[in-house]
Amino acid sequence: MKTLLLILLGAFFIPTTFAQDSLEVASRKNTLKLDLTHNLIYRNAYNLSWERITKPNQSMGFTVGYQEFPQVLNLGENIEAKRESDAGGYKFGAEYRFYLKKENKHAAPRGVYIGPYFTTLGFNTSREIVYTQTAEPQEARYGAKFRLYSLGAQLGYQFVFNDRWSLDLVLVGPSITRYDAGIRLEGDFEFDPEDVQNEILDALINKFPGLSDLLNEKELDSSGKLDVLGIGYRYQFLIGYRFGKYKQR
To answer: Where is the signal peptide (predicted)?
Structure first.
């Protein structure tokens, strides 16, 4: 944890050392990007990012998107998953980048960059289930919510082609992340809901890379909620289109 904190502090304060006397401002200051990373993890993911050059080798960016929780077929040994009745989610984020003059031959947004970022993810999912551990199978419906709040630092490289297209790769992005989860069972049943809720939680968190280790042996409280602070990671693959008034350099 100490190492992570040093990385985060460095990303916030050290970049100003590299940010002085930069290259000329890029000819087009805006880049609109499609984030393809979440398409590999979540369902129906549509995330857009906008990057704006603010200084010769600095930029700010914002992200907004919609995504649904991954399909979970196996919820536990004694739980049969039925029809999913609701699914949805969102992503919001902001970041600031410092393109390193000593490492880059070209003006931003092309080349190596570092900087801080913040993201928040939210997911809602509801499903009908059948619990088979009782003498007779009993039906119920669960509603689950996940909220992730991440503050971190990233290292990446952005390629620019023909002054119009970009390929943006976030290679390293550790963060301090707050994981907030909640599950509620509804229906006319006789089994103990706490046991079933925790079994469902275990199945759902396995869809988040590395989260199962963090929440190992963690259980929901009596109200069906779980709130944990831990380490998160960020890796991204984005394709962008650059626009804005062209200036001859």
So the answer is: 1-19
Q: What count of residues does the chain have?
A: 249
Distance CA 189, CA 131 (A): 9
Task: State the Cα–Cα distance between residues 245 and 29, nearest whole angstrom.
Answer: 8
φ, ψ for residue 162 (rounded to 5)?
A: 55, 30
Helices (H) and strands (E) in the chain, counts: 4, 10
The tens digit of pLDDT for each residue in 111-127 reads 999 999 999 999 998 88
| CA 212 vs CA 149, 153, 197: distances in Å | 17, 23, 16
Which residue pairs, CB below 8 angstroms and at least 24 apart, start in 103-106? 104/23, 104/57, 106/23, 106/160
Is residue 242 exposed (0-12), middle (13-18) or buried (19+ Cβ within 10 Å)? buried
Task: Assign 201 to helix, strand or coil.
Answer: helix
Answer yes or no: are the C-beta atoms of 238 and 36 closer than 8 Å: yes
6: helix, strand or coil: helix
The whole-model pTM stands at 0.80
Helix (H, G, I), strand (E, B) or coil at 7: helix
DSSP 8-state symbol, 42: S
Q: Which residue has the tokens 């393109």?
A: 99
User: N- to C-terminal Cα distance for the chain?
Assistant: 45
Query: Could you tell me the two tokens for 77?
Result: 């040994």
